[in-house]
């Protein structure tokens, strides 16, 4: 009996040990697989954070929009994978700001070792700045040596750890970050269009001659941690007082990028151009990852958005028609349709329901292939000046009136595009847009960006695409240029820079005009459109409406793609539930010597610095990317 009991206990203990060993083996295998997801950047998140938390979703959505392969990974699981044998040289990781300040000494050392062995890392401002107990390191940050600069020295600076400064850089760097001309200004333009201190403008910085600017007269300042000024570091951006804002450091066999801006925080507050730009820069310039482009066929796309506010707009539309402005592509024409402009009863509005000239103009525009949209709430300035988060009962009926009138003029088709009078978009208007099938809306948030899914704090406006306006400092429209007494030549020079930027970046951007302003600056506007048409004729650009762009972006959002290693090549696999038509990838020539289509339909074209692959249709595509020897 005792022998039988001992035997049973032994079997039970053995079974328990086997279960434990199996669990450990499964856990090791899971961590190893997670940490060696080939060619995908790992966004390191706190262990207790869900992968669908809003802060993580912000980064995931940005990655999809920028064509970056990224997946969130709990930092402890990533560390276990490294310790279980995931190749360090294949690691590309991001330590984000705001929600991942606390990491252990062990995590810091793992990250340092991985980069030294050949991995790539991007550390964002306060990411990893505190230990797991919430304390600063004695002296500078624990990651300072890897990043090649001293920062986070709480012992020295206490509550003066950061500065609030303008940011400077070179135009070429700005554009690699997806920051268009006008969102950055040279000193001469900044002196006229911003309130940047003249003493700052007078400083000669040959490597950093341009300033980042917002859509306001006030200078745009950012919170940056104080840093030293190391020599030998590749500095991309710096603050006006010399703090390093963005840099890349060679550490052992790998590279470490430091971004001294609160990227997550800025995007939550509708300035997402920096998170998107640095994420794309890290993925495509440092990691050398292929990019799924965000414009149809990888051709630069200009969205021309016309805001027709009042009765006078129709006369100016006739002048623009005679000048041939609307003979190009598909444009987005938005109308405020009510009989008044500044207040009920003033009679200055378009009165679309009873204005035969306006109705005929809309029919002409429709015949030219343009899209008709809503420009807000019936009485343009009354709505733009008065609507707020707290008075939807008073102002929502005006949206309904405008929608009904424009729908009637649009052959009974409810518009899918919206623009807010004076850029005023109270929170309830997003709900109204969702209820009325709006797919695309103009916005003065996130200025300079391509179309994006807008975030308001941790709330995503996911029903429609936001189209940020392009700006030249505090100028976005021709009327604003006239307010600044800007010469036609200067306004036109900016528009020409924008045209070049759209072509070179193969991205979508929105310019907006009012007819009256466009007539006042007609030579500049016509030259802009002619330059874009010349790019269209070279098959490098396109004019598209907001609706067309939104349709493409929603289809693009359904693309699933990945990279896998195969001998001396990588294999890019992509699929779409309907069709991959209009989808395009760029592949860096520094990494890939040749591209061959193994399955599916695609056109491969050599470019100055890489390969451009345009899918021709079909649901699946497989490319062999032969690595450089």
What can be said about this structure in brief?
The chain is α/β, with parallel strands linked by helices and 629 residues long. It contains 21 helices and 28 strands. 50% of the residues are buried.
Molecular structure report:
This protein is an alpha/beta fold. The protein is 36% helix and 24% strand. The protein has a ten-stranded mixed sheet, with helices on both faces. Strands 13, 24, 25, 26, 27 and 28 form a six-stranded antiparallel sheet that branches. A hairpin with a 2-residue loop joins strand 24 (560-566) and strand 25.
Class by SSE composition: alpha/beta
The best one-word shape is: globular
- Uncertain regions: pLDDT < 50 for 5+ in a row? none
Count of helical stretches: 21
- N-end to C-end Cα span: 71 Å
Mean pLDDT: 95
Helix proportion: 25-40%
Number of strands: 28
Q: What strand line-up does the widest sheet have? A: 2-1-3-4-12-11-10-6-8-7
Q: For the report, how would you describe the main beta sheet? A: 10 strands, mixed
Strand content: 15-25%
Based on CA atoms alone, the radius of gyration comes out at: 27 Å
Question: What key attributes describe this structure?
Answer:
24% strand; alpha/beta; 36% helix; 629 residues; ten-stranded mixed beta sheet; single chain; 21 helices
What is the topology?
Blueprint: H1 2-35, E1 41-45, H2 54-66, E2 70-74, H3 75-83, E3 92-95, H4 105-116, E4 120-124, H5 144-147, H6 154-157, E5 162-165, E6 167-169, H7 171-176, E7 184-186, H8 187-193, H9 198-202, E8 210-212, E9 222-225, E10 234-239, E11 244-251, E12 254-259, H10 263-268, H11 273-286, E13 291-292, E14 300-308, H12 313-322, E15 332-335, H13 356-367, E16 371-374, H14 380-386, H15 392-409, E17 417-418, H16 427-435, E18 440-443, E19 455-456, E20 459-460, E21 465-468, H17 478-483, H18 488-505, E22 508-513, H19 515-520, H20 522-537, E23 541-543, H21 546-556, E24 560-566, E25 569-575, E26 584-588, E27 592-606, E28 610-627
Parallel strand pairs: 1-2, 1-3, 3-4, 4-12, 14-15, 14-22, 14-23, 15-16, 17-18, 18-21
Antiparallel strand pairs: 5-9, 6-8, 6-10, 7-8, 10-11, 11-12, 13-26, 19-20, 24-25, 25-28, 26-28, 27-28
Helix pairs in contact: 1-3, 2-11, 3-4, 18-20
